[in-house]
Amino acid sequence: MNQEKVKELVKEALDENEDLFLIELSFQSNNKIYVEVDGDNGVNLKECIRISRHVEHNLDREEEDFGLEVTSPDVSNPLKVVRQYKKNVGRILNVVTLDSEKYEGNLTEVNEEEIKLEWKAREPKPIGKGKVTVSKSVVLKYDKIKEAKVKIIFN
User: Fold this and answer.
1) Contact indicator for 138, 117 with CB cutoff of 8 Å
2) What span, in angstroms and rounded, lies between the C-alpha atoms of 2 and 133?
3) 8 Å CB contact between 1 and 66
4) Which of 87, 91, 2 is nearest to 37 (CA)?
5) Which of 13, 78, 100, 107 could tie 51 with a disulfide, CB 3.0–4.6 Å?
6) pLDDT digit string (tens) for 101-118?
């Protein structure tokens, strides 16, 4: 399997729609090609089919047999690339760090090195009895994040 040719074909297909970006391209056993794409406004089935056809029609099955799967991310999958974080600003993330710390907060800032989460918490008053609501935040570098998932909220 000519992996460089497949990479170039996937890139060509993605370049036709600037909202789309590559999450994962892998070559699995039995010549199976796995392509996961996302988009700033989501990815519809029509786009997955278009990308699949572009790759498939430019490879020769007579030369080498292969399987091809083009898919969009599952809502339960963790975020993998910076552009996914950017498209989810304003949403609630559940984040686990490499140190096993867990955070749940509103994704408020994203740049190329880190993200910022903000949330409200109830804590004991500094003086006297009772609790008070306080605003909290944390800045996490991508290389310290083990897993980050968008929290699904049903209304």
Assistant:
1) yes
2) 58
3) yes
4) 87
5) 13
6) 999 999 999 999 999 999
